[in-house]
Specification:
- The strands form two sheets. A four-stranded antiparallel β-sheet has the order 4-3-6-5, sandwiched between helices. Strands 1-2 form a two-stranded antiparallel sheet.
- α6 packs across α16, α7 packs across α8 and α7 crosses α9.
- The chain folds into three domains: about 55 residues, no CATH class; about 270 residues, no CATH class; about 120 residues, Chitinase A, domain 3, CATH 3.10.50.40.
- It starts with a helix and ends with a helix.
- By secondary structure, the protein is of the alpha+beta class.
- The protein is built from 16 helices and six strands.
């Protein structure tokens, strides 16, 4: 904390600040945005950013990179396939893995002592024994399969299916995998451990002890997510694809923004809103003094955003690149789309988050559906999966059937059917609750009207 306080002092001049901003932008690209940015002691802005972004919402862009990472990790954790968990959550799985390892070691010792490969045709081979008890291979298999056999079998099957369905990773996929690995490396640094020690102490995935092995694990796990997304995407109709495109795609704007938030702790909320609005007006007056010089206007806006904006983009001088209608607050979009390039809002733009000042820099026309169709399908599939996790469970069942998945064990087959039925039942109940809530809301609205 002392380091952050010291770096907050504004003793440097404008040139130093601008150079620091450039360095910060470079450092920022290499850092996973997870709410606690990686401090860079070489720059004032990046260190200050680490402090200022604590508990700070990105109120303009609704889905930043870190949110995407966390959502995907959470989605995998709650899906039919167990995916990446938060550090520390692997411990139970680790203990279970230890039991398996002990059992396997017992088999290996038996083989070594007998100096032969065990014959398991009749399952009567002795794995271990004590006075009064003999553990045969058949008994060991039965015990292991009853305890956690289904989970291991489906995981092995799903990894194989994913490797066939997703044969090549895109640059975007590779980037995401790197971000996940970096995300966990930041945890290791937070706990003051090497990444290898952290994997052993807090993650505890059996057989994963190095960064390379962890990356391989993340890749396999992510391929399962991509396989489901691909399958759902293939089931989308042209009507669904067009609807998602029309609802979510627009021209792309590059802007600078300043957000002035009312004091959230104020007892008099109306007074706090008025004060925030007045602050925004005062900032606009400062911009008015340089509005005839485009270069000076941009530099002034950048400085004011860094010093006054409550939006997380403040560390980039309020810069937001290629935002679309779906990414931002409706009031924000309306105001920004009505501006011409080089213009800024003459009055504060009120939104649910506070008051915006927007400088429009450039715009790109809405891309045709044919040009972005693959991206639209991917995004639409992701949206469907996030809205209804029934699709994840049912999609995996259908994918397994596609590859002629069969379970010979009667107990395991029954457990599989019950697990699938339970997953679909829970998701159906959640869907009903959402429908009921929507219906009640609509009824209340009609009454008030």
């Amino acid at each position: 904390m002392e380091e952050k306080k010291n770096t907050k002092k504004k003793s440097t001049g404008k040139s130093t600040t601008k150079n620091a901003a450039k360095k910060n932008n470079s450092a920022k690209k290499a850092t996973v945005k997870n709410g606690n940015r990686k401090p860079n002691n070489s720059t004032k802005k990046n260190t200050a950013a680490s402090k200022k972004t604590t508990n700070k919402k990105d109120v303009v862009v609704k889905e930043n990179k870190n949110a995407e990472i966390k959502e995907k990790i959470a989605a995998e954790k709650n899906s039919n396939n167990k995916g990446l968990l938060e550090p520390g959550a692997y411990k139970n799985a680790f203990y279970v893995a230890c039991i398996v390892i002990v059992a396997l070691v017992a088999i290996i010792i038996t083989v070594a002592l007998c100096k032969r490969v065990p014959e398991t045709k009749n399952g009567k081979d002795v794995v271990a024994s004590i006075d009064g008890l003999t553990v045969t291979a058949d008994k060991l298999y039965q015990n292991l399969s009853d305890t956690y056999g289904l989970e291991n079998v489906t995981n092995m099957i799903d990894e194989y299916i994913a490797s066939k369905e997703v044969t090549k990773l895109t640059k975007e996929n590779e980037k995401y995998i790197k971000q996940v690995v970096d995300y966990y490396k930041q945890y290791a640094k937070y706990y003051g451990q090497s990444f290898e020690d952290f994997l052993s102490s807090y993650v505890g995935i059996s057989g994963v002890t190095t960064e390379k092995e962890f990356k391989e694990y993340v890749t396999k796990d992510y391929k399962k997510t991509l396989a489901v997304q691909k399958y759902i995407g293939e089931q989308l109709t042209e009507k669904e694809i067009k609807k998602y495109y029309n609802d979510n795609y627009s021209e792309k704007l590059t802007v600078r923004v300043i957000l002035v938030e009312p004091d959230k702790d104020a007892k008099d909320t109306d007074k706090a809103k008025d004060e925030a609005k007045q602050t925004a007006k005062d900032l606009i007056k400062k911009l008015d003094k340089v509005k005839d010089d485009a270069k000076k206007l941009d530099e002034k806006f950048e400085d004011l955003a860094y010093d006054n904006s409550a939006d997380s983009s403040y560390s980039d001088g309020g810069l937001k690149k290629n935002i679309m209608k779906k990414d931002v607050d409706s009031a924000f979009w309306k105001a920004a789309s009505e501006l011409k390039d080089g213009e800024y809002t003459a009055k504060p733009v009120e939104s649910e988050y506070g008051y915006y000042i927007i400088l429009r820099k450039s715009a790109k026309k809405k891309e045709s559906l044919s040009k972005v169709k693959d991206e639209v399908i991917k995004k639409a599939a992701e949206a469907k999966l996030s809205e209804d996790s029934t699709l994840s469970a049912s999609a995996w069942d259908e994918l397994r059937s596609k590859y002629n998945f069969k379970i010979n064990s009667t107990k395991m087959k029954k457990a599989y059917k019950n697990k699938l039925k339970d997953a679909l039942k829970k998701d159906t109940e959640n869907s009903k609750e959402k429908t009921t809530d929507t219906t009640n809301t609509e009824a209340t609205t009609e009454k008030s009207e």
